[in-house]
Amino acid sequence: MNDFAKGMEINEFDKRILYELDRDSRAPLSVLSKKLKKSKQFIDYHMGKLESEGIIAGYNAIIDASKLGFFTYRFYVKLKQINAGKEKDILDFLNHSKEVWTVAKLYGKWDYAFFVGAEKMKDLYSVWEKFNLRFKKNIKDYEMALYGKITNLNKRFFMDGNPVAIERTYGTSDKSRFDETDFRIIEILSKNARTSLVEISNKIKKSLNTTKRKMNELENKGIICGYKLDINLKPLNYTGYRVDLYLSSNKRKDEICKFCKSHKKIYLVVNPIGGADLELSFITKNLYELHDEIGALKELFGEDISHYEYFEFSNFTKITLTPD
Predict the structure, then answer these.
(1) What CA–CA distance (Å, rounded) separates 42 from 33?
(2) Count of CB atoms within 10 A of residue 110's CB?
(3) Adjacent-strand bridge partners of 227
């Protein structure tokens, strides 16, 4: 059993690598070498070690789906009359539906969350009808919300002190101009943000100059908002939680959002339409620590918080364009 599997803490240098990569997971070794004051070979070795140990699970581009003309809908689902075979059927359906961008396993009030990208209401309706046609008898309850403004923050939960937070805010923009080649680049970088320029160029069958220009345009337009890490929490002995916050008043909502964005154990702040007033993604060592963090939030904003719900998430069975 390796050190990570036993839950031993990673060293300070590996923490710095994770921190820098979640700020920009596409950063070249030369940039990381300069920031961390280590050789490229040294950093490459440690990145490979973090990958082989299962700490780094992937490198993903952060995409503003609204600039591609998509609305993002979040579904929570509670299942019933379920066995392993039926649950696999449901996951296979969701994982093979191109309109479904992300699927997450939850524990608590809900069993799964899945996110649908739809340009038109008929697209959303079609996905939900197909899902119900096959699995309605297995759905005990569900909840849907339309995502508005989303703020993704680089993960800092493993760092000491108060490391700098990088905000990537998106979700409420007008549609930008893009073509099929742009979308192909987006698909490639969403799956592996460290895909080399040469490899991308070969895959889209365009010159290096054209590929580089198109990537720069996607970044400058804000269609690509940044590049992040997919960090596997289990070997680090941390757990991810979703906290749905219901407010009694919106007067201090902006203050609450500002506080959450500065909190190093929160990495996602979502303003939905429907369901909760705010959806927060926490990473803590355990449930007791989560309750402490929520308690601190209530201490500051207790009069403005009506109630909250929380549930654990363990893994994502599918990730394409939607934030985690």
Answers:
(1) 9
(2) 23
(3) 61
Dig out the tokens for 215 from the structure: 């990537």
In single-letter form, the type of residue at position 59 comes to Y
User: Phi and psi dihedrals of 286, rounded to 5?
Assistant: -165, 180
Give residue 80's Cα distance to chain centre: 27
| CATH placement of domain 12-65+174-231 | 1.10.10.2890
Name the residue ranges covered by the structural domains of the chain.
12-65+174-231
113, HSE (Cβ side, Cα atoms, 13 Å): 25
Six-digit token string for 149: 């403004």
Low pLDDT (below 70) residues in the chain: 1-9, 315, 317-324
Q: How far apart are CA 27 and CA 22, in angstroms?
A: 10
What pTM did the predictor assign? 0.92
Give the residue among 242, 297, 261, 72 at the shortest CA–CA distance from 169: 261
> 143: which strand partners?
76
Tokens of 304: 């403005």
66 Cβ contact list (under 8 Å, min separation 6): 72, 170, 171, 172, 173, 174, 175
Q: CB–CB of 22/268 below 8 Å?
A: no
What angle (nearest 5°) sits at the alpha carbon of residue 147, between those of residues 295 and 232? 60
Residue 108 phi, psi dihedral angles, 5° rounding: 130, -130
Residue-wise pLDDT tens digits, 277-287: 999 999 999 99
Per-residue pLDDT of 189-228, as tens digits, reads 999 999 999 999 999 999 999 999 999 999 999 999 999 9
Give the three-class secondary structure for 234.
helix
Runs of H (alpha helix) within the chain:
12-23, 29-36, 40-52, 84-95, 121-135, 180-191, 197-204, 208-220, 253-262, 287-301
